[in-house]
Design a protein that fits this description.
Layout: E1 6-11, E2 21-25, E3 39-43, E4 50-59, E5 69-70, E6 73-76, H1 83-95, H2 100-107, H3 113-121, H4 140-147, E7 158-162, E8 167-169, E9 175-177, H5 178-192, E10 196-200, H6 204-215, E11 223-226, H7 232-243, E12 249-252, E13 264-270, H8 287-298, E14 301-306, H9 311-318, E15 323-325, E16 336-338, H10 346-351, H11 355-367, E17 370-374, E18 382-385, E19 401-402, E20 411-412, E21 432-435, H12 439-449, E22 454-458, E23 472-477, E24 490-493, H13 496-501, H14 507-519, E25 528-531, H15 535-543, H16 546-560, E26 567-573, H17 575-586, E27 591-598, E28 604-610, H18 615-631, E29 649-653, H19 662-669
Parallel strand pairs: 2-5, 7-14, 7-15, 10-12, 10-13, 11-12, 13-14, 16-25, 17-23, 17-24, 22-23, 24-25
Antiparallel strand pairs: 1-2, 1-4, 3-4, 3-6, 8-9, 18-21, 19-20, 26-28, 26-29, 27-28
The chain binds a DNA duplex through residues 6, 8-9, 11, 13, 15, 17-18, 21-25, 42-47, 49, 51, 62-64, 66-69, 631-633.
DNA sequence: AAGTCCCACGTC
DNA sequence: ACGTGGGACTTC
C-alpha cells in the first residue's frame, strides 16, 4: 500500500448507532494531511450534510458494499487522536456500553487555531532529562522494580502505595503532603529513563501540591498541566505539549489519564476513593478503570496511592493484581477514639467535645495550630420539630431546612426559600429546634472557649489557602482542611457518628478517607482524636490498621453481591425499554436483576449485577439495546404540553448511586441540590 | 439528527 | 388518479 486511499473515520456523534468506523476515499489533494489522528470533516447521509470526525486508520480496502464518498476536508494535520488513546477510549466505551466519541470529546480538547499555529511554528528547546531522584519514603529496590522497563509484565509493575500520613518540607521551604513528594519523585525517575509519566489527582489543590513538588525535580517545560480550571487555550497548549515525541510529566485531574503522553512509563492516581475521580459526563467512567485499562495496553508502571485502600483497590490487592508498597518508616498514624462525655460538664456537653479533647486542644495550641473537622458547613445544618422530632422540611420542595446564623429565619437547603411560617409536616407544631452544629457555630463556640485564640472557618464556600501563625484553631469541613507548614499540633475529628450514619454503600470507606486525610495534616507526633465513634472501625484506627476495616467491608459486599465484589449496570427509562434490556442479559449465567422499580410516572429503574467475567458480554448486549432504543421512534405522548424528549433507555455501568441515600439521589435527579453541594467538599 | 423513501389514507 | 403526512430507515 504505497499511498493509502481510504481513511477510516470515527464520527464525532453521541448517537450509539453511529459509533463505528466509516470509510471515506482520500482525494489526492488531501493525501498529505489525512494522517491517522487528524480531525476531518466528512459528508454524511446526503448531499450538503457533513459531520466532524477523526481519522483512525488508513487502508486500501473498503469493508462496505455501498458507494464510498470522499473526505470533505482535513481540518488540521495535527494527529490529535493518538492511536494509543483511541484504543483506550474504544475499550473503555465498550466496557461501559457507551459511545467512543463521548470519551474522545473528553480526551481531545477543542481545537484552538491560534494556539495550534503557534505550537506548529515553535521549535521548543529540549531541556536535559532530569537526574533520577531517590524516592524519599520508599524502598529503593521496590521502586526500581516498579519503574523498570525490564520488569516482566505485571509482576511488581502495578502497586498500591500507602502514602506517609504527614506533611513534608521541600528543599524550597514549601510544605506539601507526603504523597505529592512521592508521586513527583516517581514521575521524575520515570522521566529520567526517557519515558513519560501521568499523575491524576482529584482536585486543583492536589494538582498545586504535586506541581510544587515536581518543579524542584523536573524542568517546567517538561510538565504539562491538564485540569478543568484551565482556559481552553491553556488546555489545548498543554495537550499539544503531550503530543510531542519526547517525555512529559502530565499532571492533572481525571482527564490526565487519557493524555497522549509519548512512551508512557508511569500512571499514578492519588486517592481513587474521591468521588471527583468519577467522570460527570456520559458514560461516567472512573479514573481507576481508565488507568487499569491503559496500564494493560502500555505495559507501564501503575500506582494507586492513598492513606488506605478503597474496597476496589483492596479487591485488586487480594487478587494480587496490585502489590502493596509501604513507606520504610512512619507508615502508620494512630487515631485515638474518644468517647462522648457522659458526665455533666456543661461546656463540654454543649460543644460536643469531651474534656480530654479540650485538654489536648488547649495544650496543643501552645505548640501550633489545631484542626477541628466537622461534618457540615454553616451554622445549624438541620432543624427538627420540637414536639415530634421530625426533620423540618421545606413546604414547597420537601428539602431540609437549615439556619444560616444565630437567630436567622430557617431556609431551604435545596430551593433557598425562607421558611417564614413553618409548620411540622407530621404534627403541625410550629416550634423547631436546631440539630447539630456546622463550621460557623462550632467556630463561635470554640472562640468563646479559647479566648485569645484566632478561629478560622474553612469550608466549600469559604476556602482557606494559608493560615496565620500563633494560637489558631481551624474549623473545617472534610476535604476543605488547609495544609499548614510543619503540620497541626493536634487534630480533632468531630461528628464522626453523624458521618458514619449516612446511608451509602461507601460510607465506611468515605469516613476512613476523610479522617485519615485530615490526620495526615498533623505534625508527626501530634495527637489525632476521633470523637464518638466506637466499634471495629475505632479499634482498627487506634491500631493504625484501617485496611482491616476495608477488607471486612469487601468481604461483606461479597456476601451481599454488592460492588466492587460484582459489577453493576443501572438501567433507567421507559418501562418497556428497561424490561427489554434487562431481559436481554438475564439469560447469561451470573447475572441477576434488582427491580425494576418506578422512579416517576414515566420511568423505571432496574439494577443488573454481574460478575467481572461477564462484563464484556453484558456490555455488548446492553449496547445493542441502546442502539435499538435510539433507532426506535419515541412514542408520541398522548399528553400535549410535555414536549420533553427523553431517551427511552439510559445505561450507566458501575454506578453505585442507587445503593446510596435515596433522599440525596432523588434530589440530584431533580436537579434540586444547590451548587454548594457539588465538588469535593461534601457540604 | 435529519433527509429520503414509502405507504396509508383522504379527496375529487 | 393524485396529494400529503407521518413512520421507518439509513448514514461510508
Amino acid at each position: 500500500m504505497a499511498v493509502p486511499s481510504i481513511a477510516r473515520v470515527l464520527l464525532d456523534s453521541p448517537l450509539p448507532q453511529l459509533d463505528r468506523l466509516f470509510d471515506y476515499r482520500i482525494p489526492d489533494a488531501l493525501t498529505q494531511d489525512a494522517v491517522v489522528g487528524a480531525r476531518v470533516i466528512v459528508p454524511l447521509r446526503s448531499a450538503g450534510r457533513t459531520a466532524r470526525g477523526y481519522v483512525v486508520e488508513l487502508t486500501d480496502s473498503v469493508d462496505y458494499d455501498g458507494a464510498v464518498h470522499d473526505l470533505e476536508q482535513v481540518v488540521s494535520a495535527v494527529p490529535v487522536l493518538d492511536p494509543e488513546v483511541w484504543l483506550l477510549v474504544r475499550r473503555a466505551a465498550d466496557r461501559a456500553a457507551g459511545t467512543a466519541s463521548d470519551l474522545v470529546r473528553l480526551a481531545v480538547p477543542p481545537r484552538m487555531v491560534r494556539v495550534e499555529k503557534a505550537w506548529l511554528a515553535n521549535e521548543a528547546p529540549h531541556p536535559a532529562l532530569p537526574a533520577a531522584p531517590t524516592i524519599t519514603d520508599f524502598d529503593a529496590e521496590q521502586c526500581r522494580t516498579l519503574l523498570s522497563p525490564q520488569t516482566p509484565r505485571g509482576a511488581g509493575q502495578r502497586a498500591y502505595l500507602r502514602s506517609r500520613p504527614r506533611p513534608v518540607a521541600l528543599n524550597t521551604g514549601e510544605w506539601v503532603p507526603a504523597f505529592a513528594q512521592t508521586l513527583a519523585e516517581l514521575a521524575a525517575a520515570t522521566l529520567a529513563q526517557g519515558r513519560s509519566a501521568i499523575i491524576s489527582v482529584p482536585d486543583y489543590r492536589d494538582v498545586a501540591h504535586v506541581e510544587r513538588a515536581a518543579q524542584r525535580l523536573v524542568a517546567g517545560e517538561q510538565i504539562a498541566r491538564v485540569d478543568a480550571g484551565q482556559s481552553n487555550p491553556d488546555r489545548y497548549r498543554g495537550f499539544l505539549r503531550c503530543l510531542e515525541r519526547r517525555p512529559v510529566l502530565v499532571l492533572g485531574t481525571r482527564t490526565a489519564v487519557t493524555a497522549p503522553a509519548h512512551a508512557l512509563g508511569l500512571i499514578a492516581v492519588w486517592d481513587d476513593g474521591d468521588p471527583l475521580h468519577v467522570e460527570q459526563h456520559a458514560p461516567g467512567i472512573h479514573t481507576r478503570d481508565l488507568a487499569l485499562l491503559r496500564q494493560e495496553q502500555a505495559h507501564c508502571a501503575l500506582v494507586f496511592a492513598s492513606h488506605t485502600p478503597t474496597a476496589d483497590v483492596q479487591r485488586l490487592l487480594e487478587l494480587e493484581w496490585l502489590r502493596e508498597l509501604v513507606p520504610v518508616t512512619g507508615a502508620r498514624r494512630r487515631i485515638t477514639p474518644t468517647a462522648h462525655q457522659l458526665g455533666s460538664e456543661p461546656r463540654a456537653q454543649r460543644a460536643r467535645i469531651p474534656s480530654s479533647a479540650w485538654q489536648t486542644a488547649s495544650q496543643a495550641l501552645q505548640r501550633g495550630p489545631v484542626l477541628v473537622q466537622v461534618a457540615r458547613p454553616g451554622y445549624a445544618p438541620r432543624l427538627a420539630c420540637t414536639e415530634c422530632g421530625e426533620t423540618a422540611r421545606c413546604r414547597r420542595c420537601q428539602g431540609p431546612l437549615a439556619q444560616r446564623s444565630e437567630g436567622a429565619t430557617p431556609s431551604c437547603q435545596w430551593c433557598g426559600a425562607l421558611a417564614v411560617d413553618w409548620r411540622c409536616g407530621r404534627c403541625e407544631s410550629t416550634r423547631w429546634r436546631t440539630v447539630g452544629r456546622g463550621t460557623v457555630r462550632t467556630a463561635e463556640e470554640l472562640g468563646r472557649a479559647f479566648p485569645g485564640a484566632r478561629v478560622i472557618v474553612a469550608d466549600g464556600s469559604n476556602p482557606v489557602q494559608s493560615i496565620p501563625r500563633g494560637r489558631t484553631l481551624v474549623v473545617a469541613t472534610r476535604g476543605a482542611e488547609p495544609l499548614v507548614a510543619g503540620g497541626y499540633a493536634a487534630v480533632l475529628l468531630l461528628d464522626g457518628e453523624q458521618m458514619l450514619a449516612r446511608e451509602s454503600l461507601r460510607v465506611v470507606e468515605d469516613c476512613l478517607r476523610w479522617w485519615l486525610n485530615a490526620a495526615a495534616l498533623a505534625a508527626p507526633e501530634a495527637p489525632v482524636l476521633l470523637v464518638g465513634v466506637g466499634g471495629a472501625v475505632a479499634t482498627a484506627l487506634a491500631l493504625g490498621r484501617p485496611e482491616q476495616v476495608v477488607a471486612a467491608e469487601l468481604s461483606d459486599r461479597r456476601a451481599l453481591r454488592f460492588p466492587p465484589a460484582v459489577r453493576v449496570a443501572v438501567l433507567t427509562g421507559e418501562p418497556d425499554a428497561v424490561a427489554r434490556a434487562a431481559g436481554s442479559v438475564t439469560e447469561l449465567a451470573g447475572v441477576d436483576v434488582l427491580g425494576p422499580v418506578a422512579l416517576d410516572e414515566q420511568r423505571v429503574r432496574a439494577i443488573l449485577r454481574f460478575d467481572y467475567s461477564h462484563g464484556a458480554a453484558v456490555a455488548e448486549r446492553l449496547r445493542a439495546e441502546l442502539i435499538a432504543s435510539a433507532t426506535r421512534r419515541p412514542r408520541p405522548l398522548p399528553g400535549r404540553a410535555t414536549r420533553r424528549r427523553m431517551p427511552l433507555l439510559r445505561v450507566r455501568v458501575d454506578d453505585s448511586e442507587p445503593f446510596d441515600d435515596p433522599l440525596a439521589s432523588r434530589a440530584r435527579a431533580s436537579g434540586g441540590l444547590p451548587a454548594l453541594e457539588s465538588g469535593r467538599i461534601d457540604a
